[in-house]
Every structure is written in C-alpha cells, then in structure tokens.
Write a structure and sequence with these properties.
Helix content: 40-55%
CATH topology of the largest domain: Spore Coat Polysaccharide Biosynthesis Protein SpsA, Chain A
Shape: globular
CATH architecture of the largest domain: Alpha-Beta Complex
Order of helices and strands: HEHHEHEEHEEHEHEHHEHHHHHH
Structural class: alpha/beta
Largest sheet: 9 strands, mixed
Radius of gyration: 23 Å
Number of strands: 9
Number of helices: 15
Distance between the termini: 49 Å
Amino acid sequence: MKDIISIYNKKRSLFANDKLTQISNTLFSKIAIVIPVYNEFPGIFNTFNSLSNSVYNAELHFKNTKQTIRDRVTVVVVINNPIEASKEALENNEILYRLLTQEHTDQTEPVLKNSLDFPFYLHVCYLKNDKRVKSISKKKIGVGYARRYGMDLSLAYGASVIACMDADTLVSNNYIETLFDFEKNKFGFGICKFEHQKVPEDIRDSQKKQKAIIAYEKYIKAHSECLKNTGTPYWAYALGPTIVCNAESYASVGGMPIRKAGEDFYFIQSLEKLFLQRGNPKLQILDCTVYPSARLSTRVPFGTGQVLAGASDVKSIPSVYAEKTYEAIHTFLSVMRETIKSGCFEIQWKLLPKNVIDFLKKEDFEVVWHKLVHENKNNPKNLEIAFHVWFDGLKIIRLMHFLEKDTSQIFDI
C-alpha cells in the first residue's frame, strides 16, 4: 500500500516535485475533508459549524478522547479562481482568505491555521498565487482541479482517509464519527447518504423550486435504484460531497480527475472498477448523511444549481428513463452472465433486444468480446469482471441515451 501511495506522490501528484517543507506534517491529520471554494463567503461558515457540531458529537461518542478527535481531523479549504470568475467572486475569495488565514493575499503556499477556534485543523490553499496553477491550462481550473489539489495535498501529508465536501453542504451529527469508523474498519471506498436542504423562502418562486428539488432528489435516488436492479455494479449516485475513500484507493485510481464538472462521476466509476477488479464489487453505503444546498448556482454546467436555475416547475425536472430501458440493460447483463456461466462464450444475439444489438454493433462489441474471452477463457470470474470493466457506467449512459431514441422498439426482437 505504501508503495502505491509513494509512487503516486512522486509521479502523479500535483505536488510531485515539491518537498512541502513550508508546513509541518505533524499538524496534518489522518482524516482530511477537502472543500473546493468559489465565492462562498459567508455561507461556508454554515458548513464549518456543521462539521464542528459533528466533531463535538464524535467526542461524546468516543468519550475521553477529546484531544485525539480534534487532532485527527483536518479541513482542507481550496479557494479557486477559475478563468471566468467575476470581479465580485474574486473579491469574495479575497475576503474569505484573509479571514481564514489572517494573512495578506500574496501568500504562495498553503497555510495551516486553527485560529478561529474550530475543533479541527484548518488548512487553507489559495490557487490565485499557487505556482502549480501556472503549469495547468486555465480552461481546466475548475472544481475538479480544486478537489484534486486538496486531495493530493492531503495524500502528500499522510492522510489515511480523504472525504470530499462542498462549501454549501451540511453534515449529520454522526458524519465525523462515521469517518473514524471508516478508518478503523479499513474501508477503501464508500458514499454517504444525502438529502437536499430546503430552498430558502426568500428566493423567488421558492415553493416551486422546493417541489423541483424534491423531484430532482427523487430522480437521482430512483435512477440509482433502477440501475442497481439491472445487475450492474455502477449504480452509485455521483454527488461530490458524498464521496469518501482511503489513501491507497485514491492513489490506485490515479487521483481525482481534473475536470470543470463531472469529476465526481468519473472518480466514483474509477473506484467502482478498482474494487470490482479486486473481487469486492459491493458498494459501501456509509451510515451518515450530507445535505447539499438547494440553491441557484452557475459554478458548473450541470447539477443541482443548474436544475433549479431552469426549473419553473416540477415538469422541467428530468424523469427516470423508461422502464423498458432499464429492462433492456437487465436483459443484456443477464444474457452475458449466463453466457459466461455456460462456458460456451458465444454471444446469444437472438436473446437480446434489437436496439441493444444495434448499439453493441456500433461499439464493435463482437471484437471486444472475442478479445476478452481470449484473455480470460480459463477463468470465468475474471471474464465477468473484464466484461463489467468494459461495460462501465459511461457506456451504460450511452446505451440508455441510444435506447431512449426509440423506446417503442427496445423489445422488438
């Protein structure tokens, strides 16, 4: 495990060429919570307070370990200045940075402070002046880069558990306690449960937007459950602040993708593939809840904020795919599972829906399948794993979009 982390830190980390001597790593905790920040003052203090309450609750739960609890949690704040940032947003970032660090904004390295009396270490990173940002295309400097920066930093300083968080998200009282249990049980990857906060009443059309966010949340959860019922291992909902992983898993998948948006989907898919290949495809649902904000936002091109921004009523919220679409995926997975189990390894085209066949031919699946069989014919279990690595979450989405073009013919065999 140490070798994987060491190799990542030396070759793939954003800090690969840094000695990081500016900060004593004795002050960095084993549990790191990474928060990308953009134009979040003063609202981020609601998140800090929520995390603080969770630390206090963990102290009560574990008893007589007050110093240990506080010394083992670090909140990493990564203040992000994307290329499209407005003047108001940049000024907001400056105010937050000065308040958190009590420093001038010419600071060029991350600053570790605990001067605001939070029951955790506060590690503040300001991307405006960071030399690493200059080597990255400005078009890539978004939430994915900010998450990657904070998670790479956490790994470099020896964090054993790395949790993703958003600056407008609250947590349940047992959140910190759950992260300690995650470390104790040596889990590699898990996701928290989630519920959106209520839409503030002072927002225009708040009642309509509240109905919209309820419908949107139902859609996310229903889609996840429907995917799970198809038999695919790729059914986790992709929400950044629900993600928790350990250091070894993070390094093994190559870190957080540097993307403007969708980084959570690709990161979760990489983790799902990792544990699938290790023979442990069961997703760990953690016994805590995060509460993302239900607010208007233009920070990313899709997600909760964009849904609300365009939601005049519940009808504008996306619905789950047609039942036939999920059934078609279930049929395909069932046929392939039986094909592998039988040992004949010939694709049973006649048992597949016509539109699924059309999609598979478009993807050159016959060529792919023969290669997978050739490489794994003596080990059916490995063949099934290899198949699922190929037919991953992204391909499932592409298949669903393909099928939705004409759901009337999905089962026209």
